[in-house]
Design a protein that fits this description.
Distance between the termini: 67 Å
Order of helices and strands: HHEEEEEEH
CATH architecture: Sandwich
Structural class: alpha+beta
CATH class: Mainly Beta
Helix content: 10-25%
Strand order of the largest sheet: 1-2-5
Strand content: over 45%
Low-confidence stretches: 1-29, 128-132
CATH superfamily: Immunoglobulins
Number of strands: 6
Number of helices: 3
Number of domains: 1
Mean pLDDT: 77
Shape: elongated
Length: 132
Amino acid sequence: MHRVIVSALLGAVVLGSSLSPTSAPVRAAETYTRESLDHYFRLEWSKTGRKVDGYVYNASNRHAASMRLLVEGVDGSGNVVNKTMTWVLDVPPNNRAFFEVSAPDAASYRVSILSFNWIQEIASSRDRRNVS
C-alpha cells in the first residue's frame, strides 16, 4: 500500500512539472533582431555635460512602453569602457520620446534598445468606419 501511494505522488509530481513552464516567458522585444528594430525605431543622441540625452523615434502605429536603453561609453579603440541603462516609459506611435541619463566620460557613446513592450495599435480610418 505504501508503494502505491509513493508511486501515485511521484507520478503527480512528474505530471505537474511537465505541465508547468520551466523558463520565464520571452518578452516581445526579445524576438526582434537589431535590423527589424531599425524598421520601427530610430535613436538620436548627444553628450551634454555629464549626460547623454536624445530621442527615441517610433515609426510604428503602436505604443512602445517600458523601453530600456543601454548607453555604452566607448574608447578610441572601440572597446566598451562603461555601461549605463535608462528607461523610457512611453514612446507614442509615429512620434518621439526624450531620454536623459548620467554617463561617465568616454571618447564616444553607443545607445541601443534592450527591451520594450508593445501596448496597442491605432485603428486605421477604415477600421473606424466599420465600428460605427
